[in-house]
Amino acid sequence: MGKKNGEDKRGLKLLFWNIAGLKKKDNLFWDYVKNFDFVGLTETWILERDWNKLKDVLPKEFQWKLQGAKKEKRKGRAKGGIITGVKKDIKEIEEGAIEMEGIVERKLTVNKKRWRIYTIYSRRMRNTKQEIQEKIEESEEEVLLLEGDFNARIGNRSREEDGENTRKSKDKVENKDGKLLWELIEERLGSLEWGEGMGRGGGIYLDR
Fold first, then answer.
1. Predicted local confidence at residue 3, as pLDDT
2. Between vectors from CA 67 to CA 61 and to CA 73, what angle results, nearest 5°?
3. Is the torsion defined by CA of 64, 199, 131, 141 positive or negative?
4. Total domains in the fold of the chain
5. What CATH number did the domain enclosing 142 receive?
């Protein structure tokens, strides 16, 4: 399970979490979620058919959206699934928001600044990278944030303005998907945000 939380320097409180199943979460979990302005949950394992029932227990302070999990076989649990939530007192721009398998966009306006936040559950980084390169455009007037579970191992690599690698991780291995993720960061000149001990969660800022 991976989690990242905190208040961005622009004042937006963000929570990104690979929760590995949502149905058994208790009131303590949802009380914690209420502390944030934006919530991105991956690997929810929630099917489209279960969404109406689940919405009744979600915090009413948010506008929630589901990308349903998929069942690859008749037996066994579903895989994947994304749920995103935006506090109702935050202005959201519905028009033109992108959604494709494993990627969900929410477009917000905070302190007169436009945000485009993509919650991602990547099963194949090569496909995810291609989708991002082809479908997600950048703008100097917007903050672009890609967050979620990239299923990529990058070892201790990080990108700082001074060129130093400062990320500390017990996992020293960089795999093929990690290299693809790093190529994306370098191509877009973004910065990598990674929660301490969070395992499979993380985010990329592409803020020009």
1. 54
2. 140
3. positive
4. 1
5. 3.60.10.10
